[in-house]
Each structure stands twice: as structure tokens, then as C-alpha cells.
Write a structure and sequence with these properties.
The chain is an alpha/beta fold and 201 residues long. The protein has 4 helices and 11 strands, in the order ββββαβαβαβαββββ. Strand 6, helix 3 and strand 7 form a beta-alpha-beta unit.
Length: 201
């Protein structure tokens, strides 16, 4: 049981008490309310005290489920933009892979304070401003790890990429490495979108 003191407000008859906790209550937790009697306790308008302490107990509700586009928190921050709903697709990927220690935020809320709370930022496909690039650059230079889906042109220097020279749309991708790798890695992969052709610095 959890005991805590509450302020109360007595309304017109029938008596109604409005209880205001001094701090947020925990989910799925039993609490006991106590109204004190005696000389130092609650009195009526005539000054008469309660004959005995009044107690009442209740249990708080269970914690609500998170929306599918949100995360419970952790060292990873998924950043999206409301103008592109698919920019939060990384949330679904992380959940599908069992990686549940992440939070999600809109790019408009990015600040240095927010970024400094995370080790890794996963940036969805979006256009970023020069100010946002500066925030991300400072954070990366301080040790942060940035993963970007189809990074905006302003981000290419930070990602170690050259500016896009041309594009490919609805094509196939073949990854070939040396030394030889397993056959399944050499199979072509289809992509249905527009890809940028760029070079790494």
C-alpha cells in the first residue's frame, strides 16, 4: 500500500472531495487515502473534528499501450517528418527486429538537448534545414551515430557522400564484394523508388 497526503476541497452538500496528488501516480498501483481526525485533523464548519480517521483505497489503471508509431524510450531516437508519413517507417523495422529500446520524435522538435540524450539517431527520408544540419553535425562530431534514409542534399557532406549526379528508378541492385561472399548476397534486389547515384568520399 502507498500512503500519501492530499489537499482537499469541500463543496456544498452532499460533501464532495477533490483530491490532488502532489506528484503523478504510478500505473497499476494500490493507494490509500487518509483523512485525519482529531484536533489536528479535518473539522466541519462548527469546528467539530472527525471521530476517527477516514481511509479509502483504490488501484490505478494499467499503463496505456503505445501507438504503433511511438517507442518506449532508450538510446536510439527515430526522427521523422509529418510531411512524409513513411519517414517513421524505421519504427516498424526496429519493432519487427525486436529492438524496442528507442524513442520517436518529429524533426521540428530537434534540439541539442534532445540529441544529447541519445547515442544513435535514425533519420527518416526528409528534407532538412541548414539549422537542423548544424545540430546533427555538432552532435555527430561529439560522438553521436547518425543513420539516414536517403539523406537530404545538405546532409551529404556529413554522411561522407558526394552530391548526387543522377538517379535510377524502379531498378535492380547487385552488391558484389571481394573476397567472394555467399551466393545469396550476390542475388539482385529490386527496389521500387528513385535512388540517387552518388560516391563516397
Amino acid at each position: 500500500m502507498h500512503w500519501f497526503l492530499l489537499r482537499y476541497l469541500i463543496m456544498q452538500l452532499p460533501i464532495q472531495l477533490t483530491l490532488t496528488p502532489s506528484s503523478s501516480l504510478a500505473y497499476t498501483t494500490a493507494y490509500t487515502i487518509k483523512i485525519k481526525s482529531g484536533a489536528s485533523g479535518v473539522k466541519d464548519a462548527a469546528g467539530n473534528a472527525l471521530a476517527a480517521d477516514y481511509t479509502s483505497s483504490f488501484t490505478t489503471t494499467t499503463e496505456p499501450l503505445l501507438a504503433p508509431t511511438e517507442g518506449p524510450g532508450g538510446p536510439i531516437l527515430v526522427v521523422s517528418n509529418t510531411s512524409n508519413p513513411f519517414s517513421r517507417y524505421a519504427v516498424e523495422i526496429l519493432r519487427a527486429e525486436g529492438l524496442n529500446q528507442f524513442a520517436a520524435a518529429d524533426v521540428s522538435t530537434l534540439t541539442s538537448t534532445l540529441l544529447n540524450s541519445y547515442d544513435v539517431v535514425v533519420l527518416g527520408e526528409m528534407t532538412v534545414t541548414a539549422a537542423q544540419v548544424t545540430l546533427l553535425t555538432n552532435w555527430v562530431n561529439a560522438g553521436g551515430t547518425l543513420i539516414a534514409f536517403k539523406p537530404s542534399a545538405l546532409l551529404t557532406p556529413l554522411m561522407g557522400l558526394a552530391a548526387s549526379s543522377s538517379t535510377l528508378t524502379d531498378k535492380y541492385l547487385l552488391v558484389n564484394t571481394s573476397p567472394p561472399v555467399p551466393v545469396q548476397v550476390l542475388l539482385t534486389r529490386q527496389f521500387n523508388s528513385t535512388a540517387w547515384l552518388t560516391c563516397m568520399h
